[in-house]
Specification:
Length: 204
Amino acid sequence: MASLPTTPFVLHGGCFCKAITYTISVPALESRPVIPDPPKRPFGLQNKVTERLPIITLDHCNSCRRISGSIVECWFVCPQSWATFSLLSRSLESHPIPPTTSEVLRPSKEVERVTFIKAFQSSENAHRSFCGRCGTHLSFFYSGDDDEMAREENWGPYFDIAVGTLEKESVETEGMTLGRQGGGEEGIGGVKGVLGEGEKALHG
């Protein structure tokens, strides 16, 4: 199974109606933060590339499943510093607005008023953004102080972007495959069964 490139590469994505678009610039392997622990439920062979961000993971948790409207969510986890966003202005006379990533993950009322980005807080520290025009859900951000990996000496601020919002060319980037899965205790039995068989097949 191929791994993500070790050289820098760029991914593009956005919502269905293109009111929200983004670019993720992944640096060379040596500049990517290290993932401290091996995955509990890995997919495929692990190597020096999978030991560093980004993480591509299936998320079985009930909240992500319900909000995405799919039987399982797939996230691309990376530092906020890798991402740049562009938000279409609600005014046809205005140019697209280039917000900071944090303004997309936790938009202010003013940003929501002048663009199509919308926010939903699914629990105390769980922030999700979506497009208010076409409904595409985009991101997840955890703001709790107990997240050690979000500290500057570790990964720094990071977030999850829904893999389904990537452009087709980006989804087809070499090595853009699942690396792990989480939230299995809340997953749907039949889905976990199929994924379990698939995992065995990968190692078989």
